[in-house]
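Bench notes, bay 3.
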Amino acid sequence: MKKIVFYISFLLLVLVGFSSFGQERKKLEKKHKKIKNEIKQINNLLFKAKKEKGNALDDLKDLSQKISARERLIETIRLETKQLSKEIQANEQQLEKNNSELKKLKKDYSDMVVKTNKNRSQQSKTLFLLSSESFYQAYKRLKYMQQYNDYRKKQGENIIVKSTEIKKFNDSLIQKRKSKESLISDEKSQKKEIESDKKNQESLVSKIKKQEKKYKRDLQKKIKEDKRITARIDKLIRAVIAKANKGKKTTKKASSGFVLNAAEKKLLASFEQNKGRLPWPVKGIITRRYGVQPHPTFSGIKINSPGLHIVTKSNTDAKCIFNGKVLALQSQSGGKKSVLIQHGNYISAYNNLENVYVKKGAILKTGDKVGKVFTDKVSGKTKLLFVLFKNTAKLNPAKWIRTN
């Protein structure tokens, strides 16, 4: 009985171990797939766009992003390979144990068959029963023969079950070894790609250094333009909040935030409940994240991004992330436009639009088209600047939209 309990406990531990291995590897496989898709998007959106004139600074930033993604992919592949090695080792140990058990089962079965064949004849069975001293003894002998036959049958079935288990473990082992070989091959391929990318990176760094002053001047000019656009949007938001609150009874200052009615408060609560699950305004990749960050090339220069810079396919329409009302439209330099949508006391801003499909005051639903995203002829990129506010305070949109 103790042996049976020990065997069952051991089997449960093995099954739990394999389940744990499998779950961990599934997570890594999911991450692997996600990063590969990210690299594919980077290639399609950042490197296949038609450019009238290349900018080494932008090209370097794009290349650095791709290298970073490949490095993350290689690390994930290494973890997958390590996990597979553990699974293979566990499979081999279990296979060895199963083979040992099968060998013992076959030996026991063989010994049983030999013993049975010595007294195989029907006559010997009849004599064994007839030689009983009492009916009770004859009954006991008959039950014994039945139990013996059942046990022999059970042993035969156990051999078949154990053989099937071994075949499954063998098949699994073969598949895992193939997967491991595939991962090792993938890792080598990614390393070659990184070597090529890093050579191009060095070439771009060298080119930038030769004209460092020019690139720095252009960068500072761009930073000033971004600040100017951000300031205009901030000013517009303060103005529309003041206008929205005009005539409403409140002790708040007009510029401190929206004064909401019952319906707007309900919308606000619904918006907040969906934090982390809101849809992306466009499908694409984030090339610049929210907040203050050091410039990837020039030390000492910091960039303050008011939102997410998302590069997408050309001719893409930005979509409303949640039910709301068009609060304001604004024109920017170069014919570009911005749309601000109110969701209670939250505002989603869609900047760098070429065309706008909505009018001020329009009621929109989640997924409604807001406008066509502008494609820069020089860089060839189609990029949306997506900003999120709570009243006048900027928020990190990445915390509100769902992870891809």
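Next record in the batch:
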Amino acid sequence: MKVITSREFNQDVSAAKRFARTEPVFITDRGKPTHVLMSIASFRAFSGERESIVDALAAAEPFDLDLEPGGW
């Protein structure tokens, strides 16, 4: 578990996101935890939520269709 201050978070959001890929990041305000940043995969595992078909289709690799007129 990584703990960062809200000031550190505001100064380097990218670093917080990198940390959150591997473990939850607790963000503190005046020394008290106020938020938790985690990857979507970690959140889904924590909440028991499964990937929806919409998420799966959105993540699918694009592909080209070679549709020639009369080529069916």
